[in-house]
Design brief:
By secondary structure, this protein is an alpha/beta fold. The protein has one domain: Purple Acid Phosphatase, chain A, domain 2, CATH 3.60.21.10. Helices cover 27% and strands 18% of the residues. The protein has a six-stranded mixed beta sheet with strand order 5-6-7-8-10-9, covered by helices on one side. β9 and β10 form a beta hairpin. The relative contact order is 0.17.
Length: 242
Amino acid sequence: MNKKKRIRIAAIADIHIHEPLGGIYRKLFKKICEEADYLLICGDLTQRGLEIEAKILVHELTDCHIPVLTVLGNHDYEGGEVEEIKQVLRKNKMYVLEGEDPVIFGDIGFAGVKGFCGGFEDYMLTLWGEEMIKRFYYEGVNEAQKLETALAKLQTKYKIVLLHYSPVKETVVGESPEIFTYLGSSQLERPINNYQATMVFHGHAHGGKVLGKTSTGIPVYNVSHSLLEHLNPNHPYVLIEL
């Protein structure tokens, strides 16, 4: 009897592509795409949020012939060219996840949003005070709701979540505690637990921990490139088999 082929997912984040870096990621992406069935890039694809940087990224992925799925990160919003970046990526057959509509390949479904700040657990931002604080709070709520909508549509055996911001404190530990509020939000954890996601990948916390879990035990991977490169320069990405 033939065993069913295992699904291999590679994930990375915070590659911060910009013009002087053109060419250095092509070899890495080629290696990843020879090992994996899917490549996830969890935000901060670009350094300054410019269309030209997205075009450089697409060129770096020339030798990658597997599905590439991504969410945007805070850096990708910096230059005010978000729509142009998304257009470049989608034109080159990358899947840009923004909540609400998941992407499905057979038994595996992918749901993703950028996420937002807000803090974790007992220190999560609350809906109180100035109007600006309330707007900040609701931005996190809206991102979590978009993720919930996407997860609710998935009936697949595997439910994979892509984020830029972390849904749990555990994977940002190692960063300065003073900035935890800006590294993610427990708002994102709720739909992940409620819809029993298989696993979660995020970036943003360059100095955090690679592996954590939600309060219900769902694995959460911090796949920030600089973090993974520091731990293993020859393997600066996470590769998981399902």
